[in-house]
Write a structure and sequence with these properties.
This protein has helices at about 10-20, 45-55, 70-80, 90-105, 110-120, 145-155, 175-185, 200-205, 205-210, 230-240, 245-250, 265-270, 290-305; strands at about 1-5, 25-30, 35-40, 40-45, 125-130, 135-140, 145, 160-165, 185-190, 215-220, 220-225, 225, 260, 280. The chain has about 300 residues and is α/β, with parallel strands linked by helices. Strands 5-2-1-9-10-13-14 form a seven-stranded parallel beta sheet, sandwiched between helices. A three-stranded antiparallel beta sheet has the order 7-6-8.
């Protein structure tokens, strides 16, 4: 199974999937539009969350970073007046250093990610969506800022006027992703932010055309009129989409074959009663690993995988 992932909701579902499928059968294509250079090293937040999940390193209390990590370097830099946009742990920073050294040595982002996956003993394929740089930029009344600045530094508080992925027109689907798509019949779009996590993957030239040839199932990240987590509501509004599961269906368009809504999502169930794609109902709130595994089983059963 091939999974399109961001860095929060989808990894919870991946945690369940790896409990019911052999890890070698899971390929994850990960958003890279939130990547950022920090103190001389490239941080790929969504990729790293997936790497840490599959390696058993992820801090699942926060769903980012490495469990029991220390922050000595971050605090030392702060004490010298160097304030980083992201709070990076020491072990996490080691990942960023290795990746950045590989990139400077001429490796592609895909190749660097594969080296890290091997170092972590990961058997699944973790693939960046593209080897080309893409940046999600948020326009607010105070000006344009990188998504990480909007979400981490500003805590997602500013009004969102516009959301753009700079560089997306020139970015190509990575060869490794193209190869994986040729082999996979089923594609799962996880419950990540449809604008900044899944949106950039779908916006790559040729991606939607490829997905129309697949069986595509998605889990909605919205219940009622509110996202389960994160700033998806503001971002969907800025794109002129209804903040609802119906808005997510509109966002993804005709690539969808099946959409899974939460059993509490009465608004979405009503709004999508005449949807072109098949609508299924499940408990999508993954509050623990048991619920993540149950939802993963529901997805797999829905596909007869």
């Amino acid at each position: 199974m091939l999974v399109l992932s961001g860095g929060t909701g989808t990894p919870k579902l991946l945690e369940g999937l790896k409990n019911i499928l052999p890890e070698e059968e899971i390929t994850v294509v990960v958003n890279t539009a939130e990547d950022m250079w920090v103190s001389g090293n490239l941080v790929t937040p969504d990729i790293d969350t997936v790497l840490y999940l599959f390696s058993g390193k992820l801090d699942t209390a926060k769903w980012w970073g490495i469990k029991n990590d220390t922050f000595m370097t971050y605090e030392a830099l702060r004490s010298m007046g160097h304030n980083e946009t992201m709070m990076l742990g020491d072990q996490d920073r080691a990942t960023n250093i290795m990746r950045s050294d590989l990139l400077r040595a001429g490796y592609s982002l895909t190749e660097a990610t594969q080296e890290l996956a091997r170092a972590f003993g990961i058997r699944s394929k973790i693939l960046p969506m593209s080897d080309d740089p893409v940046k999600t930029m948020i326009t607010t009344p105070a000006g344009k800022m990188h998504f990480q600045e909007f979400w981490i530094k500003e805590h997602g508080k500013p009004e969102v006027i516009e959301v753009v992925q700079e560089g997306i027109e020139k970015a190509s689907i990575s060869p490794a992703v193209l190869e994986a798509l040729e082999k996979e019949e089923y594609v799962l779009i996880g419950p990540s932010n449809p604008i900044t996590s899944i949106g950039p993957i779908l916006a790559l030239k040729g991606m939607k055309e490829l997905l129309r040839k697949k069986t595509v199932i998605s889990v909605s990240p919205i219940i009622g009129k509110e996202p389960v987590s994160g700033p998806a509501g503001k971002l969907m509004t800025a794109r002129g989409l209804d903040v609802s599961s119906a808005g997510v269906v509109d966002c993804y368009g005709d690539i969808l074959d099946i959409m899974i809504l939460d059993e509490r999502d009465t608004y979405g169930i009503s709004a999508l009663k005449d949807a072109a794609c098949k609508i299924l109902i499940a408990d999508t709130l993954m509050k623990n690993v048991e619920k993540s595994t149950a939802l993963a089983r529901f997805v797999v059963d829905a596909l007869d995988f």
